[in-house]
Amino acid sequence: MIQFEHVSKRFVTGAKAVEAVKDVSLHIPRGAIAGIIGFSGAGKSTLARCVNLLERPTSGRVVVGGVDLTGLGPAQLRRRREKIGMIFQQFNLFQSRTVYGNVAYPLRRRGISRQARAEKVSRLLDLVGLADKAGAYPSQLSGGQKQRVAIARALANDPEVLISDEATSALDPQTTRSILHLLQELNRTLGITIVVITHEMSVVKEICDRVFVMDGGQIVERGPVFQVFSFPQQAITRGFVDGTSALARLQELLRDPSHPLRLGPEDYLIRLRYLDHSATEALISHVSRSYGVDVNILLGDIELIDGKALGGLVVIVRGTHEQVSGALQHLSQRNVSAEVISHG
Amino acid sequence: MAEWLRPIIPDVVERSDQLWEALVETLQMVGIAGGISVLLGIPFGVLLFTTKRGGILQNRPVHFLLSKFCDVFRSIPYILLAMLLLGLSRLVVGTAIGVKGAIIPLLFGTIPYLGRLTENALAEVPAGMVEAAQAIGSSPLEIIWRVYLKEAIPGIARGVTITLVSLVNFTTLAGVLGAGGLGNFAVMYGHSRNMPDIIVVSILIILALVSLIQAVGTLIARRATH
Questions:
Q1: CB A226: neighbour CB atoms within 10 A?
Q2: In 3D, which of A282, A284, A279 has the Cα closest to residue A302?
Q3: Burial readout B104-117 (b: 16 or more C-beta within 10 A, e: otherwise)
Q4: How far is A212 from chain B (nearest CA, A)?
Q5: How would DSSP label each residue in A280-302?
Q6: Is B46:B56 a contact under the CB 8 Å cutoff?
């Protein structure tokens, strides 16, 4: 659905040139929810704005729905943009228009009757759960409601693609979830392809099925979300992944020199990652019995990513070196990755 | 005019017909020049704003010319500008005196002014809204009409108000140069013949006119703010 071929974007201000996007090639299939994650300044917003050519790439091709946008004239490009909806962090609603007026805005040009327009708007407002707010002005709405209006407006031209540029970054966690679930629902019911730009891994975890990690204008890691979460390759990706799990906080606690966790001579502090189905087996008690080790569970965490369980434990295992390494070997055969963090 | 006013403002009552005539002339000048100023000044401001670097109709030579035109005419004191333009007025409308002769100089005073004020009002429209409209597929003309002008109504209403108030000021100066109106009336009688009551009454009438313009402008701006 969306194809980038060697897309680069340079910004020139005076004598300085900044390459915001460097030779990015990617493909997002129809019906996908793709996340583009990175820190601010990583170039992810610039990349997203290249999808509808709000930002015209310095070089490279942008193909959306089989049409090379970079080769279109202004009028043809505007026609294509109608099929690419976009929502923003700051909502960008028209302040002088009511909720109805905002959603109706994209429908004005096409030769449709006033009545058909009214029906369409009320259908869209129903879809985003704001049927009772048609007459309100944006200034009277909460952040979550504003974003819902923006979503309804973005859907008015029946787009094939929806770009969400940090759309939940200004919202509280609960509202963020409800907006993300709305996007997911739109993806399922309308088959719309969604590109989610974010700096929060929790957003990617919540709804995306694939993720692109950006750093310094380049995509440094990409793949299905579950895979990237289970085996992050790059340090930056590990940083994003750890930021979302309780396990990372424990590591912080352990790094504290005054931490209350004192390891004895036979204690091994180990981090286990459960991949796939092993999360449902009674592995710990089995290991404890078979290898004669004591296992003290400090922390457990399990989450669903893209419909699959990804879990982890932080444990203190007490036993001789042979006992412990035997136990770890057994675990790794069962698809549980074990990492010795420290030992006494 | 009522006889009971005679002891208080004798000269005004004596010349109430001329006063009435002067008021009508002032209103004509403000009405005609004001109307044309709005019709031309707002589009002028739109061009000034949109041809700027980074604007949706970016065109640097056009912007440069418009901007210089604006600066030149805004920096000339009105009384000198009006003198300068008497010739042009004679050429275009056939006369340099009376209400008719005053219109062109007045327009050169107000249009660049309203242009700048409109430019400022449009600059207040958040860039994000324009971006959203572009993402929706709006053309530059559509963005001007349906986003910039619509969103900037409060700012433009305030700009028009300020312009009309200046216009009232300009008409009194124009009066001195033979355009008639309250300015001329006050100078001719109040100043030259030392009739202070005529000056005071002229001021009060102008004050009322300005207050009315200001009130209507503020009302429109407030109604359009959501």
A1: 21
A2: A279
A3: bbbbbbbbbbbbbb
A4: 23
A5: GS-HHHHHHHHHT-EEEEEEEEE
A6: no
Q: What angle do CA A168, A169, A171 make, to 5 degrees?
A: 65
- As a whole number of angstroms, the distance between CA A336 and CA A274 comes to 5
Scanning B155-194 for CB atoms below 8 A from A yields none
A107 interfaces chain B, CB cutoff of 8 Å: no
CATH code, B2-224 = 1.10.3720.10
Query: Which residue among A78, A96, A153 places its CB closest to the CB of B151?
Result: A96
Q: Does the structure show a pLDDT above 60 at A280?
A: no
Chain A: residue whose CA lies nearest to B149: A96
Token reading at A277: 């189905």
| Cα–Cα distance measured from residue A184 to residue A189, given in angstroms and rounded to the nearest whole number | 9
Helix (H, G, I), strand (E, B) or coil at A207: helix
* pLDDT class of A303 with cuts at 50, 70, 90: confident
Residue A310 pLDDT exceeds 70: yes
- Across the interface, do B135 and A137 touch by the CB < 8 Å criterion? no
pLDDT attached to residue A240: 86
Asked if B138 lies within 8 A of A78 by C-beta distance, the reply is yes
Listed by start position, the domains of chain B span 2-224
Round to whole Å and give the CA distance between A320 and A293.
8
| Alpha carbons A144 and B194: distance in angstroms, whole number | 69
ipTM rounded to 2 decimals:
0.87
| Tens digit of each residue's pLDDT (9 = 90 or more) over B27-50 | 999 999 999 999 999 999 999 999
Could you read off the pLDDT of A83-133 as tens digits, one per residue?
999 999 999 999 999 999 999 999 976 678 889 999 999 999 999 999 999
Q: Does B220 touch chain A (CB under 8 A)?
A: no
Q: Which residues contact B222 (CB under 8 A, 6 or more apart)?
A: B154
B135/A54 touch (CB, cutoff 8 Å), yes or no: yes
Residue A134 identity (one-letter amino acid): A
- How confident is the model at residue A243, as a pLDDT? 73
Q: Which two tokens mark B96? A: 């340099």
B-contacting residues in A 271-300 (Cβ below 8 Å): none
What's the pLDDT score for residue A278?
Answer: 59
Q: Rounded to an integer, what distance in angstroms lies between the CA atom of residue A310 and that of residue A279?
A: 8
Q: Please name which of B214, B184, B151 lies closest in space to residue A94, comparing C-alpha atoms.
A: B151
- Which tokens in the block code for residue A189? 């019911």
Task: Please state the separation of Cα A159 from the chain's center in Å.
Answer: 21
Q: pTM for this one?
A: 0.85
Query: Which site among A53, A81, A96, A153 would you substitute to test the B interface, given the most B Cβ atoms closer than 10 Å to its Cβ?
Result: A96
pLDDT of residue B224: 93
Whether the pLDDT of residue A23 is over 90: the answer is yes
Report in angstroms the alpha-carbon separations of B174 from B40, B76, B79, B167: 21, 15, 7, 10
Is any Cβ of chain A less than 8 angstroms from the Cβ of B141? no
Confirm or reject contact between B138 and chain A (CB < 8 A).
yes
Min Cα–Cα distance to chain B from A273, Å: 43
